[in-house]
Each structure stands twice: as structure tokens, then as C-alpha cells.
């Protein structure tokens, strides 16, 4: 058992290193994923922020959680793209002909998504600090925020794996991310849901992004989190569980 585990983790390290080298050789992917949310944050804070009634004097504090989720949703589209390219080039078949633990090929892409999105999140938070973001949260709340964002990234990455493995074209592999990127706009990420029409408000208050945004916002501001964190965790774990099962089924059938 110990030999099998050591073999699995050594293979996983190789696959993670391979995927990370692809990332660092084409830094435009991280730059693109990072610049778009930063530009959006600049626009909302300095152009639209004065007209938005969010009930706070520091709008960047209110806005940041939603921007982080948009960055992650945008970043996972590249995971789907890289998986699609590997499938089309027969990379999986080549690795499977070697003495390599099969699941590590897929897990390498998943962990690469986690690392690359973490880099984007850190850069965006640093820019937000320059723009005036301030947090009274201690170490534990910050660790809770990091865990929430990591769980959200993993959940969406497994959704991306389904798209990347089952898509017929490059456009199809990445197009699935557009509705996910759009979800924060129909949530409490930019404005309170109380200002929305009744039908839109019902949807906004019962979709996963709102609970995740509210939980992160409360943690960063040092306020009581309430039930939002449990609802957010339930959404993330549920999506992760279902997406993982379907992704592994598609993976086994495809390769």
C-alpha cells in the first residue's frame, strides 16, 4: 500500500510539474485572467461606484469577493482548453502506455488550476489594497477565506474537466465558463439583492455565488458569518462531488 501511494504521489508531482511549465511558458494566460477582473474592479470602483448604493463608504471592500470569484471562473476555462488539447493530441494515451497512475494525468491539470488561480487571487488582492481595500479580519478568517476560494476553484475545475474532456471543438471547451462568469452579476456581488426586481431577487438569493460572496465578505470584515458559510460550503462541496463523479466517468470513456 505504501509503495502504491508513493508511486501515485511521485507521478502526480511529475504531472503537476508538466502542467505548471506550460503555464509559465505562456504567462499570458495568468495575465489575461488577472487583468480582466482588475479592470472590472477599477471600472466599478472609480466609474460606477459613486452611483451604486451598496450601504458602505468603502465600495472596494464590498466588491472584492465577487471580483475574486469572477477571476476564478475565468481562469478555469483555460483548464478546459488545456485538457481538450491533450485529448486531441493523444497525450493521455501516451501517458497510459507508460507505468503511470492514470488518475494523476487528470489531477495534474486540476492542481495546476488551483495554483494558477491562487496566483491570480493574490495579485488581485494586492491591487485592491492599493485601491483602498482594508480588512479587520485575523489570521483564522483569512485562512477560512482561502479555504473557501480553494474549494470553489476545485469545484469549478472539475466542471471544466467535464467540458474539456467531452467538447468537440476548442470553442466548446471554453464556452461553458461564460454562464459561470455571468452568475456574479446576478448576485449580491455588486449591489445588495434588495434593490433587484422580485423575480431576479429570488434567483440571486438562491444561487451559489451570493452565499459564497456574503460569507467571504463577512469573514473579511470581521462580522458574524451566520448561515451563509454553511450554505456556501454545501454548494461548493455538492458541485465538487457531482462534477468529480461525472468528470471521472467522461475521462474513463474518452481515454
TrEMBL record:
<dbReference type="InterPro" id="IPR047817">
    <property type="entry name" value="ABC2_TM_bact-type"/>
</dbReference>
<protein>
    <recommendedName>
        <fullName>Transport permease protein</fullName>
    </recommendedName>
</protein>
<feature type="transmembrane region" description="Helical">
    <location>
        <begin position="30"/>
        <end position="56"/>
    </location>
</feature>
<feature type="domain" description="ABC transmembrane type-2">
    <location>
        <begin position="28"/>
        <end position="254"/>
    </location>
</feature>
<dbReference type="Pfam" id="PF01061">
    <property type="entry name" value="ABC2_membrane"/>
</dbReference>
<keyword id="KW-1133">Transmembrane helix</keyword>
<keyword id="KW-0472">Membrane</keyword>
<feature type="transmembrane region" description="Helical">
    <location>
        <begin position="139"/>
        <end position="163"/>
    </location>
</feature>
<feature type="transmembrane region" description="Helical">
    <location>
        <begin position="229"/>
        <end position="251"/>
    </location>
</feature>
<dbReference type="InterPro" id="IPR013525">
    <property type="entry name" value="ABC2_TM"/>
</dbReference>
<feature type="transmembrane region" description="Helical">
    <location>
        <begin position="175"/>
        <end position="193"/>
    </location>
</feature>
<comment type="similarity">
    <text>Belongs to the ABC-2 integral membrane protein family.</text>
</comment>
<keyword id="KW-0812">Transmembrane</keyword>
<dbReference type="GO" id="GO:0043190">
    <property type="term" value="C:ATP-binding cassette (ABC) transporter complex"/>
</dbReference>
<keyword id="KW-0813">Transport</keyword>
<dbReference type="InterPro" id="IPR000412">
    <property type="entry name" value="ABC_2_transport"/>
</dbReference>
<feature type="transmembrane region" description="Helical">
    <location>
        <begin position="62"/>
        <end position="84"/>
    </location>
</feature>
<dbReference type="GO" id="GO:0140359">
    <property type="term" value="F:ABC-type transporter activity"/>
</dbReference>
<dbReference type="InterPro" id="IPR051784">
    <property type="entry name" value="Nod_factor_ABC_transporter"/>
</dbReference>
<keyword id="KW-1003">Cell membrane</keyword>
<feature type="transmembrane region" description="Helical">
    <location>
        <begin position="105"/>
        <end position="133"/>
    </location>
</feature>
